[in-house]
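A favour, since you know our structure tokens better than I do. It will help me judge whether the discrete encoding reads sensibly. The space below this message is yours for that.
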Amino acid sequence: MEKRKMIYVIIGIFVILLLAIIIVFLFGKSDSKENEIPNNSVLLQYGDNIADITYKTLSGDKDTLMSESGYSIVFYIDPYCGSCLQSFVLAEQMNDILEESVDIKIVWKQEPSKDIIRKIGIDKEKQFVLDNIEIANPYPTYFITDNKGNIVFIVDELDKLSKKVVALDCLKNDEIIELANKYFLKKTQKDSVKPTLIYFAMDGCKDCAAAEELLDSKSAQKYYDIVTVYTENSYGEKEFVDVGKLFVEIYGINWYPSFVIIKDGTYQFIGESSVRELEDFLFDVN
């Protein structure tokens, strides 16, 4: 009797172990399939050549994304992804400011609508879709490639992209500031003879509120064409927002409010200052 019980126990243990092995095998196989990259997908990594993939322009022509002139910044985004929306703003700003030095390109995960193509403010020739292949990287992902198409930087955060772009060896600090100044001058009236005042503000900032009181009391609009740039936490609420901290990196902003005065082809940066100092800086230059 004791022997029979022992046999039943051994058989029970064996069955349990066998079932456990089968379960682990089945679930392990399932997990590996989930993590497996499909045959028609490619995971782009540092050092890969982005030109190894064939792309199509929005007109349907094949392209390799090669740029022999220098660096390219490639925005891999989905036109209908909520978290990609801020990428549209930064792509447009970088394109407007840096187009003489760096190529800005968009690779859409899927075909965008005509309305999105029109709104993004970047030439159709710089917008691409994938040609019978998928990129396995998450979206949004941002790549920087050299003149041979090799990936030299990959990131999924806009502020880190801005920091890296401004530090590229093809961009000198004075030159990129001059390009940014030209960008802001285009935002103001073309026939105006007034200096341009770029006001970098943070919503809810007490020092910014004090600076705005000064601007109002002195009727600053009479003396300047003013462009107000808010921090990125005001995205969706304010008209002009520093998405990805691009202007923080360009001008070296570490205090709010900060100002840039552009007058007669030169500029003056004003950082941390008291209200009295601001009054002297802003209303003693005309």
